Amino acid sequence: MADYSVKKIDEMETTFGGGLRKARAELGVKSVGMSILTLPAGYDRYPDHDHTHDDQEEVYVVLDGSGVINIAGEDYPLDRETMARVGPTVKRKVTAGSDGIRLLVLGGVPGQAYEPPEWGELGAPDPVAG
To answer: Which residues pair with 107 in a beta bridge?
Structure first.
């Protein structure tokens, strides 16, 4: 079997109400967490959060659209020319711009092998499904 994978983003399985695509699982990536986050125009309900519970750092890469990432209370514009890295203890919140935003979100614990959350596996139930 060849050691590569190719898949269209819009064909990837979703979770969290359809806003997050399971890119890591769909591509068979084992070394790092990887999801596609898509927020509609003006969406501002993405949760303000940190990763103190799992010590994970995250990197945000804009694939399409624009928005703002609030890091530790300070706003930074996000577009296809800007990337952001946020450490585990720092609060972060993404707000979509007027054109919406699609982000590649990479995550991992420095110095440790990646351990995916259960919800990130293909076929896992959506944690926000009611």
So the answer is: 33, 58
